Amino acid sequence: MKKFIYLSTILAVVFTLSASAQIQKGNVLLGGDLADIRLGLDNSKVFQFNVTPKAAWFVEDNVAVGAYVNLGVLTAHNSSTTFTYGVGTFGRYYTGTDVEVLRHGRFFGEANIGIGGVNVSDGGGNTNGLNFGFGPGFAYFVTPSVGLETLLKYNGVGGFGNAGYQSTLTLNFGLQVYLPGRGTAAKVRGDVRR
Prior knowledge:
Layout: H1 2-16, E1 28-39, E2 47-60, E3 63-75, E4 82-94, E5 105-120, E6 127-143, E7 146-160, E8 165-179, H2 182-193
Antiparallel strand pairs: 1-2, 1-8, 2-3, 3-4, 4-5, 5-6, 6-7, 7-8
């Protein structure tokens, strides 16, 4: 019974924290983005899926730095198949205060750099090399620990292959989990014991 009360108290404290507490120094961001999911139901039989898992650590309040992996495929009946990939680092900066219209939302800017490529089968344009992207986004905190996000992002890849440079503009939707770092977790435990 003691453990149940202790766990309930910790959960109550965590859920009463504001969204800004989740983007403070020492906390961790885990999640991913989904971009342009498409399934064609007519004769073209188009299928497209792109996923980008991410993990980051808040090095300062409102500033996160981490790593990402990007994997994607686009295929259609009687057509070439396009594979995309990327791996690298990314950074985020969240605006300073909650948005008034949506009290639990924050605007942010994201930029990434790494290595990646776009490879099209059947002699299409292939580019492999430096992968980069940037754009604005919005995170809505459904709970203090979970954020639903949308991100409008310019992505480019330049380097080697029969196409020297390729770029896209994507609208991504994602789910991020904001976990307290060791310092924040110790502070919450200390507050509960008082």
